[in-house]
UniProtKB/TrEMBL annotation:
GO MF, any single term: aminopeptidase activity
Required co-factors: Zn(2+)
Native source organism of the sequence: Streptomyces hokutonensis
CDD domains: M1_APN_like (cd09603)
Keyword Protease: yes
Domain Aminopeptidase N-like N-terminal: 50-219
EC nos: 3.4.11.2
Family per record: Belongs to the peptidase M1 family.
Keywords: Aminopeptidase, Hydrolase, Metal-binding, Metalloprotease, Protease, Signal, Zinc
Catalysis: reaction(s): Release of an N-terminal amino acid, Xaa-|-Yaa- from a peptide, amide or arylamide. Xaa is preferably Ala, but may be most amino acids including Pro (slow action). When a terminal hydrophobic residue is followed by a prolyl residue, the two may be released as an intact Xaa-Pro dipeptide
Enzyme class: hydrolase
Name of the protein described by the UniProt record: Aminopeptidase N
Peptidase M1 membrane alanine aminopeptidase domain mapped to chain residues: 309-455
């Protein structure tokens, strides 16, 4: 609603305006997209979600999912209508207890019109009843619901929520979660956070999971199947919950040999990034045919293909580093993907140092020398790669190069203070590449605009002077390949 200052001579007219019922005021629909230039239709405008309560029932044999989502939010404008991102079939919607009308539009939009318009700042409770077969639904020509021999998995980036719960699907609107799912006895449910309780009745078992810290929608995960679940506590006191499909075959041993080191690696990463930010840690390895891993909050998704050649702790390091860089501090917009991937890759370089398989500087030298000036590698800018290049190799490797350049520019004391201070500075929030630069400048006391521009934004290989300033090798001879290189390279398709 537009408001203006009213002069004394216009008091009579103002009185007439005030007499107009609220329902006749200039309410408007919330935007069908949150404003991200990479994905204009993702997310929605007009409200901010604080909590998702999902009460579901799933039948693995038929892939039928039914349930009720209760969404707690607050309006951020005078709303006549608002959208949720969703694909399944909706039977009823209520807003603050009153039935609302609804319709679908676009590729994945659920348009909701409350019976009464909603003023700015109004707390709202949205209840959506729905059902469907997720594997039959698609948007933009793809489906991110992964069927397995004994169930299904929801884990993908930048979108996966549409196939199992209605949401404001953008990382900038984080919320807490309760995920309650009933499945046939003998089947299990894995999700984020901690398992609050289980109960069985009439052939069904219900699992109640809770993530009590803000979580981006793409980091919410659901896995249904038959798992071997292990529990432990890290030396630093972090509860660890891991799960392995019972039909991983020859990959079972290597998967366990990698993921069972989660507690050790969480404690080790805490030395660099600060205290672990969540109530639990862990991962799960379902029997899927995908080849990637994903940093789903507290419960990392791993494809068994990640361990087809034996154990690989490097991929575990990568995904666990995201718990700080990506999950705790999430990107403001998808163009800020370097905040996630550059630092997760750099954590692998630090792990290489820890394991005595090559220092971060040696890895930086090797990456720099491996890509000649005319290599397309240098044309992708990690600081804003574009939606088509968001998960391409330069975001990871050139992104980590930029971090090594920063380390050499500011010195180890300031650098490691930045690494540890950043997650605390923006805990459970969102931040951009520009925010990180400003924070690094504040901690180091140096102007870093030229360095960030050179390593993150210029579509060319940094020239020799810039490389020298960052202590990157300029020799035409390719440095000796660090021992960790093949393990790190094996994670290039993690996302």
């Amino acid at each position: 609603m537009h408001r203006r200052i009213i002069a004394p001579g216009a008091l009579a007219a103002a009185s007439l305006l005030l007499a107009i019922p609220a329902s006749a005021a200039s309410y408007s629909p919330g935007a069908p997209g949150i404003g991200d230039p990479y994905y204009p239709a993702y997310g929605n405008g007009g409200y901010d979600v604080s909590h998702y309560d999902l009460r579901l029932q799933y039948q693995p044999a038929t892939d039928e999912l039914a349930g009720t989502a209760t969404i707690l939010a607050k309006t951020t404008q005078d709303l006549s209508r608002f959208n949720l991102d969703f694909l399944l079939d909706v039977s009823e919607v209520r807003v603050n207890g009153v039935k609302a009308t609804f319709a679908t539009s676009g590729q994945h939009e659920l348009e909701i019109t409350p019976k009464t318009p909603l003023p700015t700042g109004t707390p709202i409770t949205v209840v959506v009843r729905y059902s469907g077969v997720p594997s039959t639904k698609s948007a933009y020509g793809f489906n991110t619901w992964h069927r397995t021999p004994d169930g299904a998995v929801a884990a993908d980036e930048p979108e996966s929520a549409w196939w199992w719960f209605p949401s404001n699907d953008h990382p900038s609107d984080k919320a807490t979660y309760d995920v309650s799912v009933a499945v046939p006895n003998g089947t299990q449910v894995i999700s984020n956070g901690t398992l609050q309780s289980t109960s069985s009745q009439l052939g069904w078992t219900r699992y109640n999971w809770r993530e009590n810290k803000p979580q981006a929608t793409y980091l919410a995960t659901l896995a249904v199947g038959k798992f071997d679940i292990t529990t432990s506590t890290s030396e630093g006191g972090v509860p660890v919950i891991n799960a392995y499909s019972k039909d991983l075959g020859d990959n079972d041993g290597s998967a366990r040999a990698s993921v069972e080191r989660t507690g050790e690696i969480v404690d080790w990463l805490s030395g660099y990034f600060g205290p672990y930010p969540f109530s639990s840690a862990g991962g799960y390895v379902p029997n899927t045919t995908t080849g990637y891993a994903l940093e789903t909050q507290t419960r990392v998704y791993y494809s068994q293909k990640q361990f087809a050649n034996g154990a690989n702790t490097s991929v575990v390091v990568h995904e666990l580093a995201h718990q700080w860089y990506g999950d705790d501090v999430s990107l403001k917009g998808w163009k800020d993907i370097w905040i996630n991937e550059g630092f997760a890759r750099y954590a692998q370089w630090l792990w290489s140092e820890h394991e005595g398989e090559g220092t971060a500087q040696q890895l930086a030298d090797y990456v720099y020398a491996s890509h000649p000036a005319d290599d397309a590698f240098w044309t992708i800018a990690p600081g804003d790669p574009g939606p088509d290049n968001q998960f391409e190799l330069p975001v990871y490797d050139r992104g980590a190069l930029a971090i090594q350049a920063l380390r050499n520019e500011v010195g180890d004391d300031a650098f490691f203070a930045i690494l540890k201070g950043w997650p605390k500075e923006h805990a459970y929030g969102n931040a951009s590449v520009q925010d990180f630069q400003a924070y690094a400048e504040k901690v180091s006391g140096k102007s870093l605009s030229a360095l960030f521009d050179t390593w993150l934004f210029e579509p060319t290989k940094p020239a020799a002077p810039a490389a020298k300033a960052a202590a990157i090798t300029k020799s035409s001879a390719l440095p000796v390949q660090p021992k960790s290189w093949k393990k790190i390279a094996a994670t290039n398709d993690v996302h």
